[in-house]
Every structure is written in C-alpha cells, then in structure tokens.
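To illustrate this point, what follows is a protein record of this kind.

___
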Amino acid sequence: MMSPLEVDRRSFLALLGAGALVTMTAGTATSAFGATADPLAALIEKRRVMLAGDGSAASVPELASVLSGMSDAADASWKAMVRPIGAPGIWADLPVAGVTGTTLSGNMGVTFDRLFSLALAYSTAGTRQHQDQALASDLVAALTYLSTDVYIAGRAAVGNWWFWEIGVPRKAADTLILLHAVVPAEVRTALMAAARYFTPNPNWRGRGTSFAETGANRTDKSLSCALRGILDNRPDEIALARDALSDTVRGGRNSVFGYVTSGDGFYRDGSFVQHSYLPYVGTYGVVTLGGLAEILGLLGGSEWDVVDPNKSVILDAVEGAFAPFIWNGRMMDAVRGRAVSRQKAPDYIDGAGAMTAILLLAQGAGEPYRERYLSLVKGWLQRSSEKQYGLPSQTVAKSLLVTSILGDDTVQAAPAPVYTKAFGDQDRLVHHRPTFSAVVNISSNRIGRYEWGNRENNLGWYQGDGLTYVYSTADQAQFSADFWPTVDPYRLPGTTVTAEPRKNGAADGTGIPRAFQRFAGGLALDDRWGIQGMDHLNHNKTLSARKSWFFLDDKMVCLGAGVTSASGFDVFTTIENRSFPAGAVPMLRPDNRYRSLAADAAAVKVRRNVHIDGHGGYVFLKGEGVSGDIDVRVVRRSGDWMTINSGSDTGGSDEVKTRDYVTITHHHGTDPSGGGYAYVVLPNVHHSATFDESETPTVSVVANNSTAQMIAVADSGLTLANFFAAGSAGGFSVTGPCSLAVRTADGRTTVALSDPSRTQTVARVTLPSSAGTSVIEADSGARVVSTSPLTLEFDLDGHGHSKRIVLG
C-alpha cells in the first residue's frame, strides 16, 4: 500500500506533464487551477508550479540537502548584492554600466541568471528565503533598474546575440512568473517589451526575416515568446510561439517536429545536428527536448495546446536519439560539443537535464511511450555512481520527478543496454556492453572536428580526430573528474597527431573546423558488432593516416595505416590516456610483469601488452604496416578550468587541479612515411584475459594498409573491414570505398555494406566462393548480381547508411 507521500509524488508527476493542473496539499490533490476564469492566470500559476513546485518537496527527505544547498547559495548571492541597487551593476563582479561588447552581454546574462535563482529560492517552500519580503523588495529594485537602464527596447544588442535574444528573455520571463504577485506591472511590461524588441518573432534571428531559427534556438525562443504572451495578456503571442514550433510560416521547413536530411535537427537514423556540422544531442538536443517538454506540459489542456500530428518525431527521439548516448545517467561527451569544457556542466549534468526532460515529457506522452520512458530513466538512475543524479543543476520541482520515479515500485528499471548502433548522418557509432560502452569522435567534410566559441573549448583541437571514449563501470567518472582541464590536449586516446604546438583558441565568435576528407563513418551489423573508419588529414594537412575501429563482443580492435607526415615534428598515436586521482594509479603489468610506476618516471617500453589492474588491458598486434615503438608511463598533469573555458557565463575556476594519467603511446617518429599501428582494447577485464589475448589472439589482422583495413574473428565467423578505395583483401573485392561486415554461421552468410565517403550510388563486393548463393532476406536495394564469382550489389542512399543481405 502506498503512503500519502508516495501518492503525492505520483500526482506531482502528473501535474507537471499532463494538461491538468492540481494544487497539492500533504497527501491530497484538492483543487484545479482551472477554478479561475482567467486562462492566462491559470497558465501563470501552472508555470510557477513547474518552476518552484507545489510545496510538497519540503516534506521529501531526499530533497532536504537540495533545499539546504539552494538556501546557502541564495544567502551568498543575496548578501553580495550591491546596495543601493543601480549602476554600475547589481553585483560588483558583474558591471553592466561602463562596459560594452561581450563583457556587457555576458554580465547581463549572468545577472539575470542570479536573479532567477534568488526568485526561485523565494518561491520554493522549504528554503530559508521562502516568501522573505526583504528579498522580494531587493529583487523588485534589481528588476526595476534593469528594465530602465540595461535591458531596454531600442538599445543596440552588442556582444553575444544569444543573451539578448534567448538567455535574458527566458530568465526574465520565468523570474517575473515567480514574482508575479510582487513585481509592479510597469516593470513587467518594460522587460517584456525589451524581449519583444530583441526577439519579435521566434521564427527568426534578431529583428529580420532572413535567418530562420532551428532546433534548440527555435524551441528556446518559442518558450520565451509563450511566457511573455502569458505575462502580457497577449494570446496572439502564445499562438505565435506554438506555431513557430511547427514553422507554419515556412510550411514546416524548420519544424522541430520534422525530420531533416541536411543541416540542423533530427534525422531518421537518430542523428541530431546543431550549428550545421556537429553531433549535439547531448547539449542543444537536451535544450530542445527540455524546452518542448515544458511547452507541451505548459500549454497542454489549454486552448493553445500543441496538436502538431508530427509530435511523434520527438517522442521517438527519446529512444532513437537520446537514449543511445546516455550511459548510466551520464551524457556521453561525444555529443556534447564545446560543453565538455564547462566546469559547472559535466556529463552527469547534461544527463540529469535529459532525464528530467524525459520524465516531464512522459506524463503527457501516453502509452507505450510513458512506460518505456520511465523504465529507461529508472535504470539509468539506479546504475549511476552519483546518488544525487538528476538533482544537480535541476530545480526542486524537477528533482521531485527523480525522487518520485525512484520510489515508484510499479516502474521496472530497464537493464543496461547491450547493442551497437550506427548514426550515418552524424558520423557516430555507439557500442554498449554490460560492463562498458564506447564511442569514437570522427570527422569529415560534413561533420566538424570540434567546436570552439565565445572562449569555450579553447584546447579542443583534436577532439574529432579519433578521440576514443571508453566508459567503464570500473570508473564511471573518468571524463567528469577534472579530465578536461588536466588531460594533455595533444594526447587524447585514439588520436594520431603531430607534436607541433597549437595556440589557445580563446576568442570571441564561434567556429567548427571541419575535416578535409569524405570518408568517415561505418556500420553496425545485427546490432551487435560495429565498424568505424576515418580517412584522416590533420588541421594543416601535414599529417595523413587511415584509421579504423572494430567493435566486438568484449573488445575493440584499432588499426592505423599510411601514417605519413612532413611536419618536421614527432608523430604519435595515443593508445590510452586514462585519468586517476593523484597518487592513486593502480598497479600496471607491462608485458605480463608487475610494475609500480611513479608519476613522471621514465617511460617503460613494451612489446606485447599492458594491463591496468581493475580497469582493463591493451594488446599490441603485429602484422602489415605496424612499425615504431610503444611505451607506457605515468604522467602527473595539472591545469585549471579557466584555461580551457573563459567564457563570460560558463568560464571555469583558476583553481589548479591535478590528476595522474596512465599514458600508452605508439611512437611513429619524425616525418614517418607509411607508418601504422594495431592494438586491442579490452575494457574492464581481469589481467588473465589480457594475457590470454596476447598469447593466443582471438583476432587476426588480415590487412592494414592505405587501401584496406580488415580483421577476422575466427570463433565468430566474422570479417570486418574498411576499404578506402576500390581494392581487394582477404578474398574480398570491392568497387569503391566502403565499410564491409560479413558473418558466416549456421549455414548463413550475412553481409552489410555502407559507403562512409558517400561518393557512390551503387557499390559491388565480390565474396570468396564459400558463401551460399540463395537469398534468405535482403534490404531493398541489396541483391545478388553474379554467383560465379559471387557478387553482391548495393544501392546506397548518400547518407552513409548500410544495406544488408542474408545468403544461404
């Protein structure tokens, strides 16, 4: 039998996501907000509850520390306010008078952020500031000053446009919602007039009609437009906001509920791209999902309800686009862009944002979505290493969603995923196994190497050059525990780079340097095995290499060939650069021997393998193309977050962080010509598995050259390959660049092929004669064109997606 508190929590879940609005008392749902005859007043109250909760959180034990922390932060921020409130700013560290450009826009944005946080503390039952009239008076004074001297209609929008058009309008509107009963109408009207001036129409950038907004920006602007319409008694603006989601002015061209085939938005294969060239479901995608969940929840049940029949695109994206990149509650860095450099937004923060958005969306989604959403989130929460998951950076109202789902025994937690999925439209592949998951950042002339912008991600130069993430249950916080400010940016795992010095990229503006070559991508075979490949040409065209990653049941095989450079600098491939707290590096076993390496001691050369106790092993394969030396060492690295992110509203601290790194490096020498590497990664295995693989490899390298990289796994009947051009290897011949997977088992041969270069409309492959010739099943466009020799033909879609055929 459920306790009254459990009933209350479940009712609160329904409150936030459905259309029905209910006011909660301890254990009882009493009256509907719809009791008022004013629908806009009802929406103001509904939004207030979405932000601050209904008061029940104060009686939830799991949230006591959250409320206490919220009170402490509010105390500090309130005490730091300058009095009397006015120029040069509300806080001494955030002048908004006497400054201009990016300083002004950034300081203005952070000022509104702080005011919102204080208004939230004032409005949230259980905080020490709840309904504190002195705080309310200071907040009104601050908003009055901003409305008359800072954020005013007609002023030039200097610096970063985002603050003027998105950041400030959203925080200003929500602050006014929270303080609706105490802020004078003229202050509210002035601030919303400024928001209307800088963003008159959520369909467009600025005040013109030449640049259409997409994705997260369109969603953000729509929510702000709806809020200002509610606050200003403008039903026409609420309707404008609703219709902008579907882009009715352009026939749905930039609808957030539609699939795209290029540029920003959701693709049918689950890809999500923002800023034209970067996989971004982990940040901009989360903003889009969260904004849509809030708009759908806010307007649901009202006369402005969103009724676009294509809402299923978003509902399907939860499982197709978001879930593959959420690992034990953490959003994988491979889809977080420049956000990896934000100290206050590590992977679990974006994961929390995604999970709470999914929980909010679940309540109005209906079945079968609702049950699956709740199951996914509960599984992530239970497997997380951080017990406060879902709570950091989230409002108390959203935190209550988390405690509710964890306390609901009717929801069955989904198990850890075990599948492999390729995303051709964003050059990504995720490989999930019970104790680890992996993803590689690759780039092409379509997908960028990395994003820098507004002084964020200042050292991200090589993040798209093959950075290989291995997420292991042995250390869930590998990429969130001060990894980015302390890791050597020249030695990211999986990358092949030169030692040529690079400059810190701190600058205003934004940029996404794309790669030069077309071949980047791969395929997944039967949701179990995977291939990724990249024709690598570095940022200044002084280094080239062909790189492949093959994903197997319990390991990854990494091949490199044609490593050639004329840079005049050393060239090296970083096999691993694993982070540990200073002084906490476990025992290492280079070439089967125990070694305790001190930080910054001389490197130890290795020939066969390295095992890191408690974390996994690395086995070095011999064969075609492999040359150079391999060594392992422990390196103590220090750095600070400000160096990699000095952004106006996201900049990090200058506090020095220190970590120890186990670094395994394959050295190719200075100006190599045709160098290569081959190694196996065995995540989260016992040392015996590393030694066994080294002594008796389960994988053989069939080819490793500039034309073909191929492996064979005998016990699985599996052959995986990347062909960078027409050619032959291992008895297979292809007519052009492709990724190829072939498995023969139980009298059946399964063949899958894609073209990561997207240069062909039709591809052919000739197989060894041992395969059967009868077609058992086949995707449209996959066929047998000859049986002697056995030749298959595949029609390709120009998006790097694979086709599959089964022969018997």
